[in-house]
Amino acid sequence: MIVDDSMVARSVLSRMVESDGSFELAAVAGTAEDAIDALQAVRVDTILLDLEMPGAGGLRSIPRILDNASGAHIMIVSSMAEEGAEETVAALALGAADALPKPGTGRFNGRFSEVLISRLKALGYADDQRRSVAPVSKIVHAPLRAMSNDPIEVLAIGASTGGIHALNSFFETLPRRIGIPILVTQHLPAPFMPVFARQLGIAAKRETLVAEDGMALLPDRVLIAPGDAHLLVEQGLDGPVAHLDRSASSTGCMPSLDPMFESISTYFGNGAAGVVLTGMGRDGALGAAKLVAAGGSVLAQDEASCAVWGMPRAILEAGLACAIMPPDKLARRVASRVGDSACR
């Protein structure tokens, strides 16, 4: 379904979607209210949603659209995805799975079409439909590793597509004080990071900062990898501090989970714990292997709660996961490993 008040945008997006035989255009709507009405009659897998529209608009309507979407994913396609970080991050926090900046008039072509189609394919089917049609041969049966009873000394969390919503769910359940530093790598462009940090801090109810070189890792402080650097850990004068690295990663992601996981495994050993949330691709799998080899633990989000079960699936398939759960249950598992320091 395409939801946009611009007839030109609806027409161009429709042609792009229908140019690939993998997709069928089920409905178009000019307002969020029309989209909600249409969802009473049609079932869709993905909703392309503009944020700037008459009426309630796209942003404020996301919860109502999701309530009526029967498991469909929302992808924001809006000029605000480039110009308005506040609105875009808010949309992702409300449950939108992905966001793309809408090209200006006359530039609806070329690379944008390729990216749109690849993102749509990554999102796949609506949640309830995806599980029922998944081929049996693709079901992953991998054993879980035993989780150490040793206390966690650091927590590193990585996420991509759909990650902001998953991170909010995780932190809303995590006790407000767990007594250890927390690192976060979320695939987002650099201009979005200050807004993301501010909004995540509200959900996490703790100090949340975009990491800078030399910034101390303090108990219950959340440090977020900036959009243009990997977040590592090194020894400072009085303990561990953040170190930013801008070298290329094996997955091509910037920032990447792999160097973050490898870094905490080197510094903290069996006191390191990693969490891999929703996202496309395999970023994090190599770093998670090194974390496990050092005696640390890796937990991953389950397929049913993921917007895209790519990164967590890679962890499970590699035999690195000690738990596969929704974000809120992952938070409870982490809390159980921090001993007496966790309290509300």
Report the uncertain regions.
130-137
CATH class of the largest domain: Alpha Beta
Count of discrete alpha- or pi-helical segments spanning 4 or more residues = 13
**How many strand elements?**
14
Give the helix proportion (percent range).
Answer: 25-40%
Modified residues (4-aspartylphosphate): 50
Active site: 160, 187, 283
Keywords: Chemotaxis, Hydrolase, Phosphoprotein
Enzyme class: hydrolase
Quick take:
By secondary structure, the protein is an alpha/beta fold. Helix content is 36%, strand content 17%. The strands form three sheets. A seven-stranded parallel sheet has the order 8-9-7-6-12-13-14, sandwiched between helices. It has a five-stranded parallel sheet with strand order 2-1-3-4-5, sandwiched between helices. It has a two-stranded antiparallel sheet with strand order 10-11.
Give a structural overview.
Pfam families: CheB_methylest, Response_reg. Its EC number is 3.1.1.61. It is built from 13 helices and 14 strands. It is α/β, with parallel strands linked by helices. It has 2 domains: 132 residues, Response regulator (Rossmann fold), CATH 3.40.50.2300; 188 residues, Rossmann fold, CATH 3.40.50. The longest helix has 13 residues.
List the helices and strands and how they pair.
Elements lengths: L1 E2 L3 H12 L9 E2 L2 H7 L7 E4 L7 H12 L4 E6 L1 H4 L1 H10 L3 E4 L9 H13 L3 H7 L20 E6 L3 H11 L8 E5 L6 H12 L3 E3 L11 E3 L5 E6 L4 E6 L11 H12 L3 E5 L8 H9 L3 E5 L9 H7 L5 E3 L1 H9 L9
Parallel strand pairs: 1-2, 1-3, 3-4, 4-5, 6-7, 6-12, 7-9, 8-9, 12-13, 13-14
Antiparallel strand pairs: 10-11
Helix pairs in contact: 2-3, 3-5, 5-8, 8-9, 8-13, 10-11
